[in-house]
Write the structure tokens for this entry.
Amino acid sequence: MSRLDRDEIVQTAATLFAARGYTTVSVADIIDQLGCTPPRLYRRFPSKLALLHAVLAAAITRQECTGCDLDKYIAAALKAAVDSPDLVIVYARDRRWISPIEFGDVARRATDHDTGWRTAIIAVAPSLTPFAVMIRHQAISAIIAASAVAPRVAGGARLRAAFTVGMHNMITAPYTTVDSAPSLARRWHVRPTRRQEILDAAITLFGERGYEDVRVDDVGKAVGIAGPSVFQHFTTKQQILVAAFDRGITQLMIAASTALDSSNNAEDALQRLVSGLAETAARNRNLLSVLVREAGGLDEPDRERIGRLRRDYDDIWAAVISQIWEELNADTAQAIARAGSEAVLSGLGFADYPSAAVDLATSTLTFITSTASTFENSLQRRVPTTAPIQTRPILDVVELNQKKS
């Protein structure tokens, strides 16, 4: 088998993994797409996991920038998002399946890649805590993945240049410290039904271990019932996942509605949208982690339905952004909105600390305002799109939370 054949297999797998998620794509699907025989595929890749690691290794190669400064890392990642969007999407979403025991070389390369990024971040933002560096790096990775799916009509090279400015300013934004962030613990809640208890337990397990690695028996054990008893409330395990997605989208919509209802103008609305999402994500870390990572576990109709609902949510952000920066077209506003919301959701995927939510909300607002302003200015030919501009954080999350209470 020639090298071209191997590259074709990797690219075909990447396309399927990006569209449907690693866990729901079978080897048979890949063989069918390639139009080859099973022995021909297995001669190169003995398992689907081996093929995934080949995809992840290719994604790292496309984004590698050893010893680079922050702007060069950003440039390399954005170029990869344009040239190999499927690889970038799979790397952002499915790298959690990297096996350091079976595929130590890929695991080491991924670790080295992360270390390089974080070293570059520290070089331009030495005041950031190690925890803040991790969160902002995670948020930047989500923005890059979001740029991989942005339509060309959203702005092309001009939008990528604006993203570069936005991400640079997001990293270098001063760290937002809080003396007493609001507690995330609920003071009171109504006693849940058995069905809600099952869903709550499943969401926690899906968020911590991944949908594929959780059995119905595990869910039953978590609530103190036998596994088969779960089916008195949910027909299948996938139905539990669908319910989790519906709850997650509902939480996003409630946060957005609350933000808009309490806003005085578009600028205020954008601040509240971002802070509201950050607070919601911190309160529902496992739930929104499922929303970000587990769409591949849904069947096609539900995946399309949830995708439409998620776009409806991003459209709310995009409408506010368009009202502030009137020269942005709908696709550009949508691309910036999606990148901003993904940054918050992914950045808080492993952090439920109130202070982390405050800082990520502030730095994400810096990204959105920098990106949108730079793009609009480039349309008006006022400033070069490649020169980073300095912005100040415009969100006082603590004050907003105090007003709510």
